[in-house]
Design a protein that fits this description.
elongated, 18 strands, 17 helices, about 20% strand, alpha/beta, about 525 residues, Double Stranded RNA Binding Domain, 3-stranded antiparallel sheet, TIM Barrel
Length: about 525
Protein backbone atom coordinates (compact mmCIF):
# COMPACT_ATOMS: atom_id res chain seq x y z
CA UNK A 1 0.00 0.00 0.00
CA UNK A 2 1.49 3.35 -1.09
CA UNK A 3 1.62 6.01 1.60
CA UNK A 4 -0.09 9.34 0.87
CA UNK A 5 2.86 11.17 2.45
CA UNK A 6 5.38 12.48 -0.06
CA UNK A 7 8.74 10.89 0.75
CA UNK A 8 11.95 12.67 -0.20
CA UNK A 9 13.74 10.90 -3.02
CA UNK A 10 17.41 11.64 -3.70
CA UNK A 11 18.60 12.01 -7.30
CA UNK A 12 21.98 10.41 -7.98
CA UNK A 13 23.13 11.45 -11.46
CA UNK A 14 25.75 9.26 -13.10
CA UNK A 15 25.90 10.95 -16.50
CA UNK A 16 29.58 11.76 -16.00
CA UNK A 17 30.43 8.16 -15.08
CA UNK A 18 28.01 5.52 -16.36
CA UNK A 19 26.78 7.84 -19.09
CA UNK A 20 30.31 8.46 -20.36
CA UNK A 21 30.93 4.71 -20.47
CA UNK A 22 28.52 4.61 -23.40
CA UNK A 23 30.71 3.89 -26.47
CA UNK A 24 31.54 7.15 -28.21
CA UNK A 25 30.18 9.40 -25.44
CA UNK A 26 33.50 10.53 -23.95
CA UNK A 27 33.49 14.14 -22.74
CA UNK A 28 36.38 16.57 -22.45
CA UNK A 29 37.56 17.94 -19.11
CA UNK A 30 35.81 21.27 -19.78
CA UNK A 31 32.59 19.59 -20.89
CA UNK A 32 32.48 17.51 -17.69
CA UNK A 33 32.82 20.65 -15.58
CA UNK A 34 30.06 22.39 -17.54
CA UNK A 35 27.69 19.43 -17.15
CA UNK A 36 28.51 19.10 -13.44
CA UNK A 37 27.81 22.80 -12.86
CA UNK A 38 24.40 22.54 -14.54
CA UNK A 39 23.50 19.38 -12.59
CA UNK A 40 24.43 21.16 -9.36
CA UNK A 41 22.35 24.23 -10.17
CA UNK A 42 19.47 22.03 -11.32
CA UNK A 43 19.24 20.41 -7.89
CA UNK A 44 20.84 16.98 -8.33
CA UNK A 45 21.65 15.57 -4.88
CA UNK A 46 24.63 13.36 -5.77
CA UNK A 47 26.85 13.71 -8.83
CA UNK A 48 28.91 10.64 -9.68
CA UNK A 49 31.79 12.45 -11.36
CA UNK A 50 33.76 9.51 -12.69
CA UNK A 51 35.96 6.48 -12.06
CA UNK A 52 39.19 7.95 -10.64
CA UNK A 53 41.35 4.84 -11.06
CA UNK A 54 40.44 4.54 -14.76
CA UNK A 55 42.91 7.18 -15.94
CA UNK A 56 44.76 10.29 -14.87
CA UNK A 57 42.25 12.32 -16.86
CA UNK A 58 39.33 10.78 -14.99
CA UNK A 59 41.05 11.39 -11.64
CA UNK A 60 41.66 15.03 -12.53
CA UNK A 61 38.07 15.48 -13.70
CA UNK A 62 36.61 14.01 -10.49
CA UNK A 63 38.96 16.18 -8.44
CA UNK A 64 37.98 19.31 -10.39
CA UNK A 65 34.26 18.56 -10.08
CA UNK A 66 34.69 17.95 -6.33
CA UNK A 67 36.31 21.38 -5.99
CA UNK A 68 33.80 23.18 -8.22
CA UNK A 69 30.44 21.79 -7.05
CA UNK A 70 28.76 23.96 -4.43
CA UNK A 71 25.71 22.00 -3.32
CA UNK A 72 25.68 18.36 -4.44
CA UNK A 73 27.56 15.44 -2.94
CA UNK A 74 30.35 14.34 -5.31
CA UNK A 75 30.95 10.59 -5.68
CA UNK A 76 33.82 8.64 -7.19
CA UNK A 77 33.42 5.03 -8.28
CA UNK A 78 35.75 2.28 -7.06
CA UNK A 79 35.93 -1.45 -7.53
CA UNK A 80 36.32 -3.59 -4.41
CA UNK A 81 40.07 -3.07 -4.57
CA UNK A 82 42.10 -1.01 -2.11
CA UNK A 83 43.94 0.87 -4.88
CA UNK A 84 40.62 1.96 -6.44
CA UNK A 85 39.21 3.06 -3.09
CA UNK A 86 42.34 5.01 -2.17
CA UNK A 87 42.30 6.80 -5.52
CA UNK A 88 38.61 7.66 -5.19
CA UNK A 89 39.18 8.92 -1.64
CA UNK A 90 41.98 11.17 -2.86
CA UNK A 91 39.75 12.62 -5.62
CA UNK A 92 36.62 13.35 -3.58
CA UNK A 93 38.37 14.72 -0.49
CA UNK A 94 38.11 18.21 -1.99
CA UNK A 95 34.30 18.13 -2.07
CA UNK A 96 32.09 19.80 0.51
CA UNK A 97 30.45 16.39 0.73
CA UNK A 98 32.37 13.48 -0.74
CA UNK A 99 31.22 9.90 -1.32
CA UNK A 100 33.01 6.73 -2.33
CA UNK A 101 30.84 4.36 -4.34
CA UNK A 102 32.31 0.86 -4.28
CA UNK A 103 30.86 -2.28 -5.83
CA UNK A 104 31.36 -6.01 -6.22
CA UNK A 105 29.54 -8.72 -8.14
CA UNK A 106 27.16 -10.99 -6.24
CA UNK A 107 25.32 -13.13 -8.82
CA UNK A 108 26.35 -16.77 -9.40
CA UNK A 109 27.18 -16.11 -13.06
CA UNK A 110 29.45 -13.19 -12.15
CA UNK A 111 31.12 -15.04 -9.28
CA UNK A 112 31.82 -18.04 -11.49
CA UNK A 113 33.01 -16.36 -14.67
CA UNK A 114 34.16 -12.85 -13.75
CA UNK A 115 35.15 -12.80 -10.07
CA UNK A 116 36.11 -16.50 -9.79
CA UNK A 117 35.44 -16.21 -6.06
CA UNK A 118 33.23 -18.10 -3.64
CA UNK A 119 30.33 -16.49 -1.82
CA UNK A 120 32.30 -16.46 1.44
CA UNK A 121 35.30 -14.85 -0.21
CA UNK A 122 33.10 -12.08 -1.59
CA UNK A 123 31.60 -11.45 1.85
CA UNK A 124 35.12 -10.94 3.21
CA UNK A 125 35.94 -8.57 0.34
CA UNK A 126 32.79 -6.53 1.07
CA UNK A 127 33.67 -6.14 4.74
CA UNK A 128 37.28 -5.08 4.07
CA UNK A 129 36.66 -2.71 1.15
CA UNK A 130 33.65 -0.93 2.64
CA UNK A 131 35.59 -0.39 5.85
CA UNK A 132 38.50 0.95 3.78
CA UNK A 133 36.20 3.41 2.04
CA UNK A 134 34.73 4.46 5.36
CA UNK A 135 38.23 5.42 6.55
CA UNK A 136 38.24 8.16 3.87
CA UNK A 137 34.65 9.43 4.01
CA UNK A 138 31.59 9.05 6.18
CA UNK A 139 29.35 8.65 3.12
CA UNK A 140 29.93 5.23 1.55
CA UNK A 141 27.72 3.62 -1.05
CA UNK A 142 27.96 -0.08 -1.77
CA UNK A 143 26.52 -1.80 -4.83
CA UNK A 144 25.73 -5.46 -5.39
CA UNK A 145 26.51 -5.75 -9.08
CA UNK A 146 23.93 -7.91 -10.89
CA UNK A 147 21.69 -7.88 -7.80
CA UNK A 148 18.59 -8.87 -9.76
CA UNK A 149 20.18 -12.21 -10.75
CA UNK A 150 21.47 -12.88 -7.23
CA UNK A 151 19.63 -15.43 -4.99
CA UNK A 152 17.70 -13.51 -2.33
CA UNK A 153 19.27 -15.29 0.65
CA UNK A 154 22.79 -14.48 -0.46
CA UNK A 155 21.86 -10.94 -1.48
CA UNK A 156 20.57 -10.31 2.04
CA UNK A 157 23.84 -11.58 3.54
CA UNK A 158 25.90 -9.24 1.35
CA UNK A 159 23.73 -6.23 2.20
CA UNK A 160 23.97 -6.96 5.93
CA UNK A 161 27.76 -7.26 5.65
CA UNK A 162 28.07 -3.98 3.78
CA UNK A 163 25.99 -2.06 6.33
CA UNK A 164 27.90 -3.63 9.22
CA UNK A 165 31.14 -2.46 7.60
CA UNK A 166 29.89 1.13 7.37
CA UNK A 167 27.91 1.52 4.14
CA UNK A 168 25.31 4.30 4.38
CA UNK A 169 23.70 3.69 1.00
CA UNK A 170 22.90 0.28 -0.48
CA UNK A 171 22.45 0.09 -4.23
CA UNK A 172 20.76 -3.00 -5.71
CA UNK A 173 21.20 -2.46 -9.45
CA UNK A 174 19.49 -4.18 -12.34
CA UNK A 175 22.89 -4.25 -14.02
CA UNK A 176 21.83 -6.06 -17.17
CA UNK A 177 18.27 -4.73 -17.46
CA UNK A 178 16.77 -8.15 -16.73
CA UNK A 179 14.11 -7.41 -14.11
CA UNK A 180 10.46 -6.50 -14.44
CA UNK A 181 8.88 -3.78 -12.27
CA UNK A 182 7.10 -6.17 -9.90
CA UNK A 183 10.19 -8.33 -9.45
CA UNK A 184 12.33 -5.29 -8.73
CA UNK A 185 9.82 -3.93 -6.21
CA UNK A 186 9.57 -7.26 -4.44
CA UNK A 187 13.35 -7.60 -4.24
CA UNK A 188 13.59 -4.33 -2.30
CA UNK A 189 10.66 -5.21 -0.07
CA UNK A 190 12.16 -8.59 0.82
CA UNK A 191 15.70 -7.33 1.40
CA UNK A 192 14.55 -4.44 3.57
CA UNK A 193 12.29 -6.74 5.59
CA UNK A 194 14.84 -9.56 6.04
CA UNK A 195 18.10 -7.66 6.66
CA UNK A 196 18.19 -6.76 10.38
CA UNK A 197 20.24 -3.58 9.97
CA UNK A 198 18.44 -2.34 6.84
CA UNK A 199 17.11 0.73 8.67
CA UNK A 200 20.67 2.09 8.98
CA UNK A 201 21.02 2.68 5.21
CA UNK A 202 19.21 4.35 2.32
CA UNK A 203 18.41 1.93 -0.50
CA UNK A 204 19.09 2.91 -4.09
CA UNK A 205 17.90 1.85 -7.55
CA UNK A 206 20.09 1.69 -10.64
CA UNK A 207 18.34 0.32 -13.72
CA UNK A 208 19.56 -0.39 -17.22
CA UNK A 209 17.31 -0.28 -20.24
CA UNK A 210 18.09 -3.49 -22.11
CA UNK A 211 14.40 -4.44 -22.22
CA UNK A 212 13.14 -0.84 -22.25
CA UNK A 213 12.04 -1.13 -18.61
CA UNK A 214 14.59 1.09 -16.84
CA UNK A 215 12.18 3.86 -15.82
CA UNK A 216 9.37 1.44 -14.97
CA UNK A 217 11.74 -0.64 -12.85
CA UNK A 218 13.01 2.50 -11.13
CA UNK A 219 9.48 3.42 -10.09
CA UNK A 220 8.94 -0.18 -8.97
CA UNK A 221 12.04 0.09 -6.78
CA UNK A 222 10.66 3.26 -5.18
CA UNK A 223 7.48 1.40 -4.35
CA UNK A 224 9.64 -1.27 -2.73
CA UNK A 225 11.21 1.27 -0.40
CA UNK A 226 14.23 2.65 -2.27
CA UNK A 227 14.74 6.38 -1.79
CA UNK A 228 17.70 7.10 -4.03
CA UNK A 229 17.44 7.01 -7.81
CA UNK A 230 20.50 6.53 -10.01
CA UNK A 231 19.95 7.87 -13.50
CA UNK A 232 21.45 9.85 -16.38
CA UNK A 233 20.47 12.77 -18.58
CA UNK A 234 18.86 11.50 -21.80
CA UNK A 235 19.21 7.96 -20.41
CA UNK A 236 22.72 7.53 -21.86
CA UNK A 237 24.87 4.71 -20.58
CA UNK A 238 26.18 1.20 -21.17
CA UNK A 239 24.48 -0.79 -23.97
CA UNK A 240 20.84 0.43 -24.16
CA UNK A 241 21.47 3.05 -21.49
CA UNK A 242 20.22 3.92 -18.02
CA UNK A 243 16.95 5.19 -16.60
CA UNK A 244 16.47 8.75 -17.86
CA UNK A 245 16.52 11.42 -15.17
CA UNK A 246 14.04 13.66 -16.99
CA UNK A 247 11.49 10.86 -17.41
CA UNK A 248 11.63 9.80 -13.77
CA UNK A 249 11.42 13.34 -12.42
CA UNK A 250 8.47 14.29 -14.62
CA UNK A 251 6.69 11.01 -13.88
CA UNK A 252 6.89 11.84 -10.17
CA UNK A 253 5.76 15.42 -10.76
CA UNK A 254 2.95 14.60 -13.19
CA UNK A 255 1.58 11.51 -11.41
CA UNK A 256 1.85 12.67 -7.81
CA UNK A 257 -1.51 10.99 -7.22
CA UNK A 258 0.08 7.53 -7.48
CA UNK A 259 3.74 8.41 -6.95
CA UNK A 260 3.85 10.13 -3.54
CA UNK A 261 7.46 11.28 -3.77
CA UNK A 262 9.29 14.55 -4.19
CA UNK A 263 12.76 15.56 -5.27
CA UNK A 264 14.65 18.81 -5.51
CA UNK A 265 15.06 19.02 -9.31
CA UNK A 266 14.26 22.31 -11.05
CA UNK A 267 12.31 20.80 -13.95
CA UNK A 268 12.43 23.92 -16.14
CA UNK A 269 16.13 23.15 -16.68
CA UNK A 270 15.57 19.64 -18.04
CA UNK A 271 15.51 20.63 -21.70
CA UNK A 272 18.66 22.70 -21.28
CA UNK A 273 20.45 19.80 -19.56
CA UNK A 274 19.39 17.44 -22.33
CA UNK A 275 20.78 19.71 -25.04
CA UNK A 276 24.04 20.25 -23.15
CA UNK A 277 24.70 16.53 -22.66
CA UNK A 278 23.70 15.78 -26.25
CA UNK A 279 26.16 18.39 -27.52
CA UNK A 280 28.96 17.29 -25.17
CA UNK A 281 28.65 13.61 -26.08
CA UNK A 282 27.67 14.14 -29.74
CA UNK A 283 24.74 11.80 -29.08
CA UNK A 284 21.56 13.10 -30.72
CA UNK A 285 18.30 12.80 -28.79
CA UNK A 286 15.73 10.75 -30.67
CA UNK A 287 12.87 12.90 -31.94
CA UNK A 288 10.18 11.00 -30.03
CA UNK A 289 12.16 10.80 -26.77
CA UNK A 290 9.88 11.42 -23.79
CA UNK A 291 10.10 14.87 -22.15
CA UNK A 292 13.06 16.27 -24.12
CA UNK A 293 12.66 14.89 -27.65
CA UNK A 294 11.97 17.35 -30.46
CA UNK A 295 8.49 15.89 -30.93
CA UNK A 296 7.60 15.56 -27.23
CA UNK A 297 5.36 18.64 -27.48
CA UNK A 298 4.73 18.62 -31.24
CA UNK A 299 1.43 17.72 -32.90
CA UNK A 300 0.76 17.11 -36.60
CA UNK A 301 -2.46 15.07 -36.62
CA UNK A 302 -5.44 17.23 -37.53
CA UNK A 303 -7.55 15.70 -34.74
CA UNK A 304 -4.86 16.39 -32.15
CA UNK A 305 -4.22 19.92 -33.43
CA UNK A 306 -7.92 20.72 -33.29
CA UNK A 307 -8.06 19.50 -29.68
CA UNK A 308 -4.94 21.45 -28.73
CA UNK A 309 -6.39 24.66 -30.16
CA UNK A 310 -9.50 24.18 -28.05
CA UNK A 311 -7.80 23.07 -24.82
CA UNK A 312 -4.14 22.15 -24.34
CA UNK A 313 -4.91 19.43 -21.82
CA UNK A 314 -6.72 17.37 -24.46
CA UNK A 315 -3.41 15.95 -25.68
CA UNK A 316 -0.71 17.16 -23.28
CA UNK A 317 -0.38 15.89 -19.70
CA UNK A 318 2.28 18.46 -18.81
CA UNK A 319 3.14 21.89 -20.15
CA UNK A 320 6.21 22.36 -22.33
CA UNK A 321 7.22 25.29 -20.12
CA UNK A 322 7.47 22.95 -17.12
CA UNK A 323 10.50 21.21 -18.69
CA UNK A 324 12.04 24.31 -20.26
CA UNK A 325 10.53 24.07 -23.75
CA UNK A 326 9.28 27.41 -25.06
CA UNK A 327 5.90 26.29 -26.33
CA UNK A 328 3.82 23.57 -27.94
CA UNK A 329 4.47 23.13 -31.66
CA UNK A 330 1.65 22.48 -34.09
CA UNK A 331 3.67 20.97 -36.92
CA UNK A 332 2.26 21.65 -40.34
CA UNK A 333 2.25 18.52 -42.48
CA UNK A 334 0.02 16.25 -44.51
CA UNK A 335 -1.89 15.15 -41.38
CA UNK A 336 -2.78 18.71 -40.34
CA UNK A 337 -6.37 19.87 -40.50
CA UNK A 338 -8.07 23.12 -41.50
CA UNK A 339 -8.24 24.41 -37.92
CA UNK A 340 -4.47 24.20 -37.45
CA UNK A 341 -3.83 25.61 -40.93
CA UNK A 342 -6.10 28.57 -40.28
CA UNK A 343 -4.45 29.11 -36.88
CA UNK A 344 -1.02 29.07 -38.54
CA UNK A 345 -2.19 31.63 -41.13
CA UNK A 346 -3.42 33.88 -38.33
CA UNK A 347 -0.03 33.58 -36.60
CA UNK A 348 1.64 34.60 -39.87
CA UNK A 349 -0.69 37.59 -40.27
CA UNK A 350 -3.00 36.33 -43.02
CA UNK A 351 -6.78 36.69 -43.02
CA UNK A 352 -8.34 34.80 -45.92
CA UNK A 353 -11.93 34.52 -47.01
CA UNK A 354 -13.59 31.12 -47.06
CA UNK A 355 -12.90 30.44 -50.73
CA UNK A 356 -9.31 31.65 -50.49
CA UNK A 357 -8.79 29.53 -47.38
CA UNK A 358 -10.11 26.39 -49.08
CA UNK A 359 -7.91 26.97 -52.11
CA UNK A 360 -4.84 27.69 -49.97
CA UNK A 361 -5.54 24.61 -47.82
CA UNK A 362 -5.79 22.39 -50.89
CA UNK A 363 -2.47 23.75 -52.19
CA UNK A 364 -0.92 23.24 -48.75
CA UNK A 365 -2.04 19.60 -48.67
CA UNK A 366 -0.57 19.04 -52.13
CA UNK A 367 2.70 20.59 -51.02
CA UNK A 368 2.77 18.54 -47.79
CA UNK A 369 2.41 15.33 -49.81
CA UNK A 370 5.55 16.25 -51.72
CA UNK A 371 7.65 17.72 -48.93
CA UNK A 372 8.73 16.14 -45.60
CA UNK A 373 8.85 19.41 -43.66
CA UNK A 374 6.56 22.35 -44.34
CA UNK A 375 8.00 25.50 -42.80
CA UNK A 376 6.37 28.86 -42.14
CA UNK A 377 8.26 30.29 -45.13
CA UNK A 378 6.74 27.58 -47.35
CA UNK A 379 3.24 28.54 -46.23
CA UNK A 380 3.92 32.24 -46.72
CA UNK A 381 5.19 31.63 -50.25
CA UNK A 382 2.21 29.40 -51.02
CA UNK A 383 -0.37 31.90 -49.73
CA UNK A 384 1.33 34.92 -51.30
CA UNK A 385 1.27 33.18 -54.66
CA UNK A 386 -2.33 32.09 -54.11
CA UNK A 387 -3.43 35.67 -53.36
CA UNK A 388 -1.47 37.23 -56.20
CA UNK A 389 -2.72 34.76 -58.86
CA UNK A 390 -6.37 34.53 -57.79
CA UNK A 391 -7.56 36.86 -60.58
CA UNK A 392 -5.02 35.85 -63.25
CA UNK A 393 -6.30 35.06 -66.72
CA UNK A 394 -3.48 32.59 -67.44
CA UNK A 395 -2.61 29.68 -65.17
CA UNK A 396 -0.27 26.70 -65.43
CA UNK A 397 -2.08 23.37 -65.67
CA UNK A 398 0.69 20.88 -66.40
CA UNK A 399 4.36 20.81 -67.34
CA UNK A 400 6.68 18.04 -68.47
CA UNK A 401 10.34 18.71 -69.17
CA UNK A 402 12.93 16.42 -70.73
CA UNK A 403 16.51 17.45 -70.01
CA UNK A 404 19.97 15.93 -70.01
CA UNK A 405 23.24 15.78 -71.89
CA UNK A 406 21.83 14.21 -75.07
CA UNK A 407 20.39 16.67 -77.58
CA UNK A 408 18.05 19.62 -77.11
CA UNK A 409 15.87 19.96 -74.02
CA UNK A 410 12.11 19.95 -74.55
CA UNK A 411 9.05 21.12 -72.63
CA UNK A 412 5.39 20.15 -72.96
CA UNK A 413 3.26 22.87 -71.37
CA UNK A 414 -0.49 23.15 -70.79
CA UNK A 415 -2.00 26.50 -69.83
CA UNK A 416 -5.48 27.70 -68.93
CA UNK A 417 -5.91 30.93 -70.90
CA UNK A 418 -9.08 32.63 -69.71
CA UNK A 419 -10.86 29.27 -69.40
CA UNK A 420 -9.41 27.70 -72.56
CA UNK A 421 -6.85 24.92 -72.26
CA UNK A 422 -3.91 25.16 -74.66
CA UNK A 423 -0.97 22.73 -74.97
CA UNK A 424 2.28 22.98 -76.88
CA UNK A 425 5.65 21.20 -77.07
CA UNK A 426 8.86 23.13 -77.76
CA UNK A 427 12.62 22.75 -77.49
CA UNK A 428 15.25 25.10 -76.15
CA UNK A 429 18.84 25.62 -75.12
CA UNK A 430 18.26 24.16 -71.67
CA UNK A 431 15.08 23.24 -69.78
CA UNK A 432 14.21 26.79 -68.67
CA UNK A 433 14.65 28.13 -72.22
CA UNK A 434 12.38 25.34 -73.51
CA UNK A 435 9.70 26.27 -70.94
CA UNK A 436 9.83 29.97 -71.79
CA UNK A 437 9.68 29.13 -75.53
CA UNK A 438 6.54 27.09 -74.85
CA UNK A 439 4.94 30.04 -73.04
CA UNK A 440 5.79 32.30 -75.97
CA UNK A 441 4.24 29.76 -78.36
CA UNK A 442 0.93 29.78 -76.50
CA UNK A 443 0.96 33.48 -75.61
CA UNK A 444 2.88 35.45 -78.25
CA UNK A 445 4.34 38.60 -76.71
CA UNK A 446 7.17 41.05 -77.11
CA UNK A 447 8.10 41.41 -73.43
CA UNK A 448 11.82 41.22 -72.69
CA UNK A 449 13.18 38.91 -69.97
CA UNK A 450 15.31 41.25 -67.82
CA UNK A 451 15.88 39.01 -64.79
CA UNK A 452 15.63 35.34 -63.90
CA UNK A 453 16.52 34.47 -60.30
CA UNK A 454 16.16 31.36 -58.15
CA UNK A 455 16.62 30.89 -54.42
CA UNK A 456 15.54 28.27 -51.88
CA UNK A 457 12.68 29.22 -49.54
CA UNK A 458 13.95 26.86 -46.79
CA UNK A 459 16.84 24.47 -46.23
CA UNK A 460 17.12 20.91 -47.51
CA UNK A 461 17.13 19.20 -50.86
CA UNK A 462 13.32 19.17 -50.88
CA UNK A 463 13.11 22.92 -50.25
CA UNK A 464 10.73 25.00 -52.29
CA UNK A 465 12.40 27.06 -55.00
CA UNK A 466 11.22 30.66 -55.26
CA UNK A 467 11.72 32.04 -58.76
CA UNK A 468 11.61 35.72 -59.66
CA UNK A 469 11.13 36.81 -63.27
CA UNK A 470 11.30 40.48 -64.35
CA UNK A 471 9.68 41.36 -67.69
CA UNK A 472 9.99 44.70 -69.49
CA UNK A 473 7.41 46.14 -71.89
CA UNK A 474 9.40 47.56 -74.85
CA UNK A 475 6.54 49.92 -75.78
CA UNK A 476 5.77 51.54 -72.44
CA UNK A 477 9.10 50.83 -70.74
CA UNK A 478 7.25 49.42 -67.75
CA UNK A 479 8.70 46.45 -65.89
CA UNK A 480 6.95 43.91 -63.70
CA UNK A 481 8.18 41.07 -61.48
CA UNK A 482 6.48 37.72 -61.30
CA UNK A 483 7.21 35.35 -58.43
CA UNK A 484 6.29 31.73 -57.74
CA UNK A 485 7.36 28.94 -55.41
CA UNK A 486 7.32 25.19 -55.89
CA UNK A 487 9.46 22.20 -54.82
CA UNK A 488 10.13 21.76 -58.55
CA UNK A 489 12.34 24.64 -59.76
CA UNK A 490 11.13 24.26 -63.35
CA UNK A 491 7.46 24.43 -62.36
CA UNK A 492 8.22 27.50 -60.26
CA UNK A 493 9.98 29.03 -63.29
CA UNK A 494 6.93 28.53 -65.50
CA UNK A 495 4.58 29.94 -62.87
CA UNK A 496 6.80 32.96 -62.24
CA UNK A 497 7.00 33.79 -65.97
CA UNK A 498 3.21 33.45 -66.28
CA UNK A 499 2.75 35.62 -63.18
CA UNK A 500 4.87 38.31 -64.85
CA UNK A 501 2.86 38.13 -68.07
CA UNK A 502 -0.40 38.38 -66.11
CA UNK A 503 0.85 41.50 -64.33
CA UNK A 504 2.04 43.03 -67.60
CA UNK A 505 -1.29 42.25 -69.24
CA UNK A 506 -3.16 43.81 -66.32
CA UNK A 507 -1.18 47.03 -66.74
CA UNK A 508 -1.82 47.06 -70.50
CA UNK A 509 -5.55 46.48 -70.00
CA UNK A 510 -5.69 49.36 -67.56
CA UNK A 511 -4.14 51.61 -70.20
CA UNK A 512 -6.02 50.04 -73.16
CA UNK A 513 -9.23 48.31 -72.02
CA UNK A 514 -9.70 46.69 -75.45
CA UNK A 515 -6.45 44.73 -75.09
CA UNK A 516 -6.55 41.12 -73.88
CA UNK A 517 -3.67 38.70 -73.41
CA UNK A 518 -5.57 35.90 -75.15
Amino acid sequence: MISTKKDRVYIFDTTLRDGEQCPGATMTFEEKLEVAHLLDVMGVDIIEAGFPIASDGDFEAVTAVAKAVKNATVAGLARAIFADIDRAGEAVKHARRGRIHTFVSTSPIHLAYQMRKSEEEVLEIIAKTVARARSFVEDVEWSAMDATRTPLDYLCRTVEAAIDAGATTINLPDTVGYATPNEYRDMFLNVRNRVPNADKAIFSVHCHNDLGLAVANTLGGLEGGARQIECTINGIGERAGNAALEEIVMAIKTRSDTLPYECGIETTMLNRASKLVSAATSFPVQYNKAIVGRNAFAHESGIHQDGMLKNQTTYEIMTPESVGVQKTSLVMGKHSGRAAFKNKLNELGYELGDNQLEDAFARFKALADRKKHVYDEDIEALVDENISTAQDLVKVIALTVIAGTMGHQSATLSLDVDGVHKTVQTTGNGPVDAIFNAICAIIPHDAKLALYQVHAVTEGTDAQAEVSVRLEDPVSGRSVTGKAADPDTLVASAKAYIAGLNKLDAKRRQAHPQHNVA
